[in-house]
## 1
Amino acid sequence: MLHKSNSLAHYSNVVANRIRPHIWLLPNILTAWWWGVNIGLKNQFYGKTVFRTEPNSIISIGDNCRFNSSHRSNLIGVYSPCMISTIARNSEIYIGNNCGFSGTVMGAALSIKLGNNVRCGANTLITDSDWHSGDPRTGKNAPVVIEDNVWLGYGVKVLKGVHIGENSVIGAGSIVTHDIPANVVAAGNPCKVIRTISE
Ligand SMILES: CC(C)(COP(=O)(O)OP(=O)(O)OC[C@H]1O[C@@H](n2cnc3c(N)ncnc32)[C@H](O)[C@@H]1OP(=O)(O)O)[C@@H](O)C(=O)NCCC(=O)NCCS
């Protein structure tokens, strides 16, 4: 006879998930402070987020964001901690309020700006450079802007110079190399609009 799922396991996990952000808050806030990251209020951390800053760069995080950095913090599977870094002097990362990240890697050599309510699915990458600045085969760094209410699906890569308009959804596994307008669902490699979101 098959067993049904175990409620005790479920509810103990619910309780553990309520406790975990409190345990992880102080180490993450201290790391943020150590690296000069400006961080707002009521942010939640599941596991240890990695912050790194280059001199004269800015990382600014709003209020009420969630960072899933442990592999169990999101059952869709998180391969690495969230890693938020400036990788060149005078670069900047601005993250608005109510944003969510699962194992998201974000590295700015120039400028990355996220609005409010941006959802970055598991194992997403946001970059404004090719990460090999001295290599003549690479292109120029270019700023990235992701506007309010954008949802990046699992494994999405947003590459340099991209602007994603508000309220748009980017399908799982997409590689975004060009601008995406507001209020659309877009997907694929390279990412293209597949439909408009109507009211
Ligand atoms: C983008 C998405 C929202 C579209 O869902 P939908 O509106 O139900 O669209 P459909 O499944 O009807 O697909 C419409 C078309 O887009 C294509 N498409 C959908 N998702 C795609 C993707 N991720 N990559 C490439 N093409 C995709 C389909 O193949 C289909 O093409 P066709 O018309 O030529 O057959 C959904 O596919 C998706 O990727 N969701 C993200 C899920 C996710 O990552 N969740 C976890 C977050 S951590």
## 2
Amino acid sequence: MKIITRENFSDICRPVFSTTVYTTMTWLLKAWAVIFLLEWTLVSGLVRNSGQYLQNTLVLDPDTLITDEVGEKEFRHEVNPDVNLTALELIEKYGYPAESHTVTTKDGYILTLHRIPHGKNASSGPRPVAFVQHGFFSSSVDWLFNRVDKAIPYMLADRGYDVWLGNARGNTYSRRHVKLSPEKSKFWQFSYDEMGLYDLPAVIDYVLNTTKQPDMYYIGHSMGAGMFFVCMSSYPEYNHKIRFMAAMGPAVYLNNMRGPARYLAPLASLEKVILDLLGHGEILPEYIVKYINTYAPEFCTPEMKLQELCENFVFLLAGFDPAQTNTTELPVILAHTPTTSSTKTLIHFLQAISSGKFRKYDFGSFRNKFIYGQWTPPKYDLSKVKVPVALYHAPNDMLVDTKDVARLAKDLPNLVGSYEVNLTQFNHIDFIYAIDVDVLVNKPLLELMTKY
Ligand SMILES: *[C@@H]1O[C@H](CO)[C@@H](O)[C@H](O)[C@H]1NC(C)=O
Ligand SMILES: *[C@@H]1O[C@H](CO)[C@@H](O)[C@H](O)[C@H]1NC(C)=O
Ligand SMILES: *[C@@H]1O[C@H](CO)[C@@H](O)[C@H](O)[C@H]1NC(C)=O
Ligand SMILES: *[C@@H]1O[C@H](CO)[C@@H](O)[C@H](O)[C@H]1NC(C)=O
Ligand SMILES: *[C@@H]1O[C@H](CO)[C@@H](O)[C@H](O)[C@H]1NC(C)=O
């Protein structure tokens, strides 16, 4: 009789069915996932354009064809020059001072921070710190695509803040570790739990130490808000290091999710299947991300009729809002997003959708008992979050529903307010990219920040 430990658990408790059945099932699921995504993308477009969709998008318009020297027809399109720029290059291109810093977490991950120390016309010197944290599948660069008068980092810098942009472990800018290689699945054994437990404390300490400021403002989008609550509830002593926090579309409670991603949630219980399906480490292998980032921008330029297909793909997941989408910026967005992350982060989110609870990663009853000392994962205690928090939510957010935000608002002991964006079509990613995000969200937020 062998003793079951954390290490040999999965060897002993393998699923009972045979490898063949298992492999077949995995392949069927893969095929299902591909068909599902294609169908949704096409169907949502077809419905919108009453049948004209395929004619408009897939049949080539003569205007978009040019003839090259050898007489071959090819697409004529100009790609936005920003597609190849990194976060630092973008900040510099738009005339702001830019810095890059690295921070090593207690468990060895090496994270990159980007900094805009002051506004265009200001000189350097101590000023209040504003830390901005991205969400799932995203990185610091996503905040920098919108026009400088609309994007929150530039707006903050021009209003006198020292702006720091975080990068969670595993994304494009934070794929390093003192010992582990991102080629190995061991590197990817984390979810937003570790981002809150290790990344944020390291980053908060580093930024406050470097700037010699006593505290900071924190702005988090989606998972960037979720990991903040993980951090503050787990280490209450960090509450006094944050002066004020704003959460946009906070990914905390997710059980009222409306988007198609919700249909994946029941799979959370088949953790092993998902891990086999997507790999035990990176959720999308780096080469696939590179492939999307390289080819999507070419097909998503305003001149290309395939652009609608690209938009639909984005709307499908986040909510439908063509009016707020700047089509000139779409290729730049797709050249940088999605970025890499771990499969475990996705599974942790799927668990939150099906359980309706904000709690630690669910390893299954037996491993939970072993790891946490109880059969179900412990909840994060939101009553320990003493920071003043303002919540912003979008009426057309298909991922983080208004009902879920209302529930979070009730659980927070020091709520400043819960604000719904005044635009029915406003969706989850509009907080970063929308044409009117400055008027609808950023300006009221900056106004509110001056009171703290
Ligand atoms: C971006 O980089 C690729 C590959 O290096 C290159 O082919 C392309 O022309 C570049 N695009 C722009 C707009 O600079
Ligand atoms: C910076 O200074 C220039 C020239 O004086 C001015 O046109 C511009 O509006 C200023 N920008 C900001 C953000 O204050
Ligand atoms: C804070 O910065 C000083 C140097 O400025 C350094 O010696 C010290 O180790 C830093 N502390 C932390 C916690 O990073
Ligand atoms: C919301 O937007 C509408 C239309 O732009 C405007 O008339 C209304 O005053 C706004 N409401 C609030 C509360 O700002
Ligand atoms: C759309 O993006 C382009 C490129 O960043 C910018 O020049 C243009 O002003 C933007 N349009 C709007 C309405 O924000």
